[in-house]
Design the sequence.
């Protein structure tokens, strides 16, 4: 590791590198999220009885599918730490515990981004009416901000749930209500971009709301994460 | 052995829900000394180690470890203890080398130390296999490497020779045995072996102290009585 890296970043980078290595070595979260997303689009395709979607309906289907897929990744986020007492190994290290938060949120963000590369393509092929290309820059921006929200809240909730027996229940029950504002902002922001008449301009109001959500929950999570790991 | 206590516990208590896993435990361990903790399953031995490791907060009493009061100054203790628990505290899908390199980064230990320990534990031949493929004995040797990687002054060892054959037990001795010169708290179910390596003996029964004495004043029968 380079000596030029800030000292406080080193544990986060080591933790992130470890999570990426584990996902590459034994893929779990990314394939599960991918399979879920594509299957959901197929179900929508037949369930709605429509070959194409556009506008707000298309944006809603896309963002809700990503949200539910993210729940799968959030559920798995700390599983490698729970097995064989890995959590204890981390807690014994002389590192700021927020380094763990930063690394886990970054890992989840990257996993989601990877999933969305395939998911958006599958969505465009299976359901989307208008051409996706004009909407792509705006969509990337909105999905990046949505990923930020999912990563921050997801890491917080996953850390909260991991030591409970009902982890699989707690994650969706706690995370989904917290993520409602982010979902609304992302869906409303993406709606005009996917309009049947062609991509409209990026709705800055919803982008700002989404960015503010990321900032507020990011700071909140950073502040309370240490306490979540306390016995 | 230094007369300065590395561990000072006064009336330490810890509960899980309504059940007291440790109750009114008082003991001093001088720096460089070995405290061996005896007691039947569920007596509170592992809980005591986890409190000393700062993984559990005491619910009553006072605890001072390596000069730092717990839980207020737990952050000063982390990184200065080596814990060998029943679980290996390793990632199953990473190799021994990857696990140790990861922990070396967290503890800011040179990567050369990883290679040195792998050689000393005769693990070099299996160092790149995922640890989930290792036998329990080999896994325990990797766990020993992890516990001593950062050269901690205090070792907390939960039945450290479990799963080890005599040759492997001899192999870990310089790192976690008396010869390591570190302060050690060791749990054991073996009265003869435990007393042989102890400076002080602590016996727990239902979380309470049933025996506390210098090891040379304790005989096997007294320890065996704890298990009846």
Sequence:
């Amino acid at each position: 590791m380079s000596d030029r890296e800030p000292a406080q970043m080193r544990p986060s980078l080591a933790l992130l590198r470890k999570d990426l290595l584990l996902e590459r070595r034994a893929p779990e979260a990314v394939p599960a999220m991918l399979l879920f997303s594509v299957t959901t689009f197929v179900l929508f395709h037949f369930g709605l009885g429509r070959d194409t979607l556009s506008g707000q309906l298309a944006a809603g289907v896309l963002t809700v599918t990503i949200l539910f897929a993210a729940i799968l990744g959030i559920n798995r986020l700390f599983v490698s730490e729970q097995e064989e007492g890995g959590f204890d190994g981390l807690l014994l290290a002389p590192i700021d515990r927020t380094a763990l938060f930063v690394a886990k949120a970054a890992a989840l963000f990257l996993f989601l981004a990877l999933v969305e590369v395939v998911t958006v393509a599958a969505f465009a092929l299976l359901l989307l009416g208008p051409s996706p290309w004009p909407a792509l820059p705006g969509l990337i921006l909105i999905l990046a901000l949505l990923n930020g929200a999912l990563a921050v809240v997801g890491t917080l909730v996953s850390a909260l749930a991991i030591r409970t027996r009902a982890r699989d229940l707690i994650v969706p029950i706690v995370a989904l209500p917290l993520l409602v504002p982010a979902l609304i902002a992302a869906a409303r922001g993406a709606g005009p971009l996917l309009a049947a008449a062609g991509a409209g301009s990026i709705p800055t109001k919803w982008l700002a709301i989404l960015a503010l959500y990321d900032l507020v929950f990011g700071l909140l999570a950073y502040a309370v994460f240490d306490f979540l790991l306390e016995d | 052995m230094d007369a300065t206590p590395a561990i000072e516990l006064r009336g330490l208590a810890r509960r899980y829900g309504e059940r007291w896993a440790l109750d009114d435990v008082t003991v001093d361990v001088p720096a460089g000394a070995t405290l061996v903790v005896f007691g039947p399953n569920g007596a509170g031995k592992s809980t005591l180690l986890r409190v000393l490791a700062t993984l559990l907060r005491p619910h009553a009493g006072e605890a001072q470890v390596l000069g730092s009061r717990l839980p207020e100054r737990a952050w000063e203790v982390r990184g200065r203890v080596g814990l060998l628990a029943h679980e290996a505290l390793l990632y199953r899908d990473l190799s021994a080398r990857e696990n140790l390199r990861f922990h070396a980064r967290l503890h800011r230990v040179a990567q050369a130390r990883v290679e040195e320990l792998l050689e000393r534990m005769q693990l070099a031949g299996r160092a790149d296999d995922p640890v989930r493929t290792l036998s329990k004995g080999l896994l325990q040797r990797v766990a020993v490497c992890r516990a001593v990687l950062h050269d901690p002054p205090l070792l907390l060892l939960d039945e450290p020779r479990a799963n080890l054959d005599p040759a492997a037990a001899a192999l870990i001795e310089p790192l976690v045995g008396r010869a390591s010169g570190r302060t050690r708290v060791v749990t054991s179910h073996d009265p003869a072996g435990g007393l042989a390596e102890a400076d002080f003996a602590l016996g727990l029964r239902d979380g309470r102290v049933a025996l506390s004495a210098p090891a040379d004043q304790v005989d096997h029968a007294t320890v065996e009585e704890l298990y009846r």
In short: Residues 1-80+153-228 of chain B form a domain with the Rossmann fold fold (CATH 3.40.50.300).
